[in-house]
Specification:
By secondary structure, this protein is α+β, with helices and mostly antiparallel strands. Helices cover 19% and strands 32% of the residues. The chain has nine helices and 29 strands. The chain has helices spanning 2-25, 208-216, 287-290, 308-321, 329-332, 372-375, 404-407, 461-485, 499-508; strands at 53-54, 60-61, 78-81, 85-92, 97-104, 110-113, 133-142, 147-158, 167-178, 189-192, 221-226, 240-246, 254-262, 273-278, 281-282, 295-297, 304-307, 338-341, 353-358, 364-370, 376-382, 386-391, 393-396, 400-402, 410-415, 420-426, 430-431, 434-435, 437-444. The strands form seven sheets. A six-stranded mixed barrel has the order 4-5-10-6-9-8. Strand 25 (410-415) and strand 26 form a beta hairpin. The two termini are 21 Å apart.
Length: 509
């Protein structure tokens, strides 16, 4: 019995030890975001403060037009569309050099072309700016499509149709790139509006919007309206494409209420998707399928991107409910267009798509819906006789991405101050007087898991400490057990290992 008890205790100790060890290695690293030190040689005195009012819920609204800022000044400060991206004009350096900068909520670097490229008309010449300072650090960023390399520097930046004032920001001067600048685009850089965790070369680099909040004193909120819904991605003209409002939300840009969903993790703007519907069909997938890897809101992604299993289920559901059953597979995978005679729109053949997001009240959800006009997208004319369209949804190997296909239907409030994203019906998401998007709720979330987000759980500090203490206790326990077991390994008078000890050794092996 004593031998059996010793073996049981030994086995339990080893199991506890390895179990605790595994728990230890599963704890995610927390990286201190920090701030990049701005040179004291740059004068911040001219920077102006911004006065805003509140709606009572912590959301900043447009101030009195006689104040320091008026959000109406930021209306229609974007150009572009979902196919080529939405961009804003910015003034960089001294004297100011004007460039169009792509607005991207899926990255965190502010980067501008600093060398000639065949697909861009002009670039930021650092040698012509008396206030540009190189930091001597190299940086490289890779996106879903394209990549670039360059050097980090500091300079003055202002936005003609943005908050009043000039700020000193980190700038990545792009010296070489591959697949980043594309034919037909009218922008020369990228404005990453996500959190420091995504900044390169590391999270100590303060992103652009963090600098704006700190130096201009505006609330940590911005909002985005993208108005390219129904526009051909091959149109030669760049109409006023929408609005980027820094410091709050402009009420004239949306209709009805703003519905909020929590920001799950502050790196990308990660949200929690509870379910998808095609028409009235619930896909009936485990909610973790929708959040596989992550689910994010990204203005720099053109399409609605879905994990492979979710994408296949959506295509199957659309095929079942569509009035057209014999679509080429090339249409669904994006390699072929579907064309109709000019003037014959295909949207009546397709169902609505709905995404359910967890509400700030975790026991509830709300639904954002896009009509076919947003995901069956016009591309080009063929000989003036055909109208052709592409499928605005694609499969993804790295998570669900609510891109421009969906965002064009809504006014999206990035309320970083309260760690939430808001969705309201966009005032420009209309076609022929009819709305192209819908919002409804609240709905009960009792039919889904309490936590649908994919990936490793993010333990708070106390859990990390408790795991460490468990590991220490387990180590002490093992030492004590060894002290109890070792006396059993006694030798007889001839110096041979006894049968009892031999059995323990072989059992351990």
């Amino acid at each position: 019995m004593a031998r059996t008890a010793s073996l049981s205790i030994w086995a339990f100790a080893l199991s506890l030890y390895f179990g605790v060890t595994m728990c230890h290695f599963s704890i995610p690293l927390r990286i201190y975001t920090g701030k990049y030190n701005i040179s004291s040689a740059l004068d911040l005195a001219p920077l102006r403060q911004v006065a805003l009012t509140s709606d009572g819920n912590g959301l900043s609204l447009a101030s009195d037009p006689t104040g320091t800022v008026n959000f109406l000044d930021m209306v229609n400060n974007l150009q572009g569309d979902s196919g080529r991206g939405y961009y804003i004009e910015m003034s960089i350096g001294t004297p100011a050099q004007k460039l169009n900068i792509l607005v991207d909520t899926g990255s965190s670097n502010f980067a501008v072309a600093a060398a000639a490229h065949p697909f861009i008309t002009h670039y930021f010449n650092t040698a012509l700016s008396s206030t540009y300072q190189s930091t001597g650090r190299n940086v490289a960023v890779r996106y879903t499509q394209g990549n670039w390399e360059g050097e980090l520097g500091l300079d003055r930046v202002s936005i003609p149709k943005g908050p009043n004032g000039t700020i000193i920001v980190n700038i990545a001067a792009i010296l070489s790139s591959e697949g980043f600048f594309l034919p037909g685009v009218n922008w020369q850089g990228i404005l990453g509006l996500a959190y420091p965790m995504l900044a390169r070369p590391d999270s100590s680099l303060e992103p652009f919007f963090n600098s704006v909040v700190q130096q201009l004193g505006i609330p940590d909120i911005f909002s985005l309206q993208m108005c390219g819904a129904g526009l051909s991605a091959s149109s030669t003209a760049d109409p006023a494409g929408g609005s980027l409002v820094m410091g709050g939300a402009e009420p004239t840009l949306y209709r009805g209420s703003v519905w909020y969903t929590p920001i799950v993790e502050e790196w990308y703007y990660q949200v929690e998707v509870l379910k998808l519907e095609v028409g009235d069909q619930n896909l009936d997938l485990d909610c973790r399928e929708y959040n596989m890897d992550k689910a994010i809101v990204d203005s720099g992604t053109t399409l609605l991107r879905l994990p492979v299993n979710v994408f296949n289920a959506v295509v199957e559901a659309i095929t079942r409910s569509s009035l057209i059953q014999d679509f080429s597979s090339g249409f669904w995978d994006g390699t072929k267009l579907a064309c109709w005679m000019k003037g014959e729109t295909p949207w009546r053949f397709f169902p609505k798509l709905s995404i359910y997001l967890r509400a700030t009240n975790s026991s509830q959800s709300f639904r954002i819906t896009i009509l076919p006009q947003l995901y069956i997208q016009p591309i080009t004319d063929v000989d003036g006789t055909l109208d052709c369209f592409r499928f605005g949804v694609s499969s993804s190997a790295n998570g669900l991405v609510i891109g421009a296909t969906v965002m064009e239907g809504f006014y999206v409030v990035f309320d970083r101050a309260q760690r939430r994203l808001g969705f309201a019906l966009s005032s420009c998401a209309v076609n022929g007087g009819a709305a192209l998007s819908e919002i409804a709720g609240p709905f009960s979330a009792a039919d889904v898991a309490a936590n649908c987000s994919g990936g490793a759980p993010k333990e708070p500090l106390l859990w990390v400490i408790s795991y460490a203490l468990m590991a220490v206790c387990a180590l002490i326990l093992i030492i004590l057990l060894l002290l109890l077991v070792l006396p059993c390994r006694r030798r007889d008078s001839s110096g041979e290992i006894t049968d009892e000890s031999s059995l323990v050794r072989h059992r351990i092996k």
